[in-house]
Write a structure and sequence with these properties.
About 45% of the residues lie in helices and about 25% in strands.
Length: about 250
Amino acid sequence: MSDQSHTATVQRQFGAQAGAYLGSTVHAQGPEFAELRAAVAARPGARALDLGCGAGHVSYQVAPLAGAVVAYDLAPEMLALVATTARERGLDNITTTQGAAEQLPFPDRHFDLVFSRYSAHHWSDLGGALREVCRVLKPGGLAAFVDVAGPPRPLLDTHLQTVEVLRDPSHVRDYTPAEWLQRVAQAGLKPERHALLRLRLEFASWVARMQTPEPLRVAIRALQEGASTEVRDYFAIEADGSFSADVVVLWASR
């Protein structure tokens, strides 16, 4: 798939789902938000980039502590939702900009902080996007990446990537922590620390957010039901298809 074709797929998938993501518990809550807020609070007046902002949950969390927040996303519908929600919540230091993660329209050394949460698995070129993050970060700036993590064992990784792409054709890859560390370092950033969290995904809402067609929902359930004991145990697959996955939280500095 060409980058242009992938961009169109992402915009098609997420443009129509903006409201569903604003109300998503998975996206609106998470223990990592406390870390993001603390990083902003430690830098009074900081300028932050919410990269692949989606419905804007990171922006809403950090804006009360930041000097300015730019919510950046590929889908214009998402950005329209963020602008409206920020206005309703009185967060007038949030602005929106549209574009791809691999081509950031910002000057060098422009941001004190770059945050990306549940976005990187849609990027067509992870390395290119990380190099752009390095470019727009000020020296001494911090970046935090939060995303579903691929398991290190090929059997488990194959299962996760398969159910992800069946659910959402804009999915590219859930990267393992080792892949994240390697790519971040190659982009010129210095990994500082990382941790794994566990995230439960309730099946009905997980597929509803993407409006996954019924035949593909059936295919996901068939894959889960036919999976080995090792796969079923690792992902804690439940009777209704709900399951749990790892989430990596990685901090890096410039």
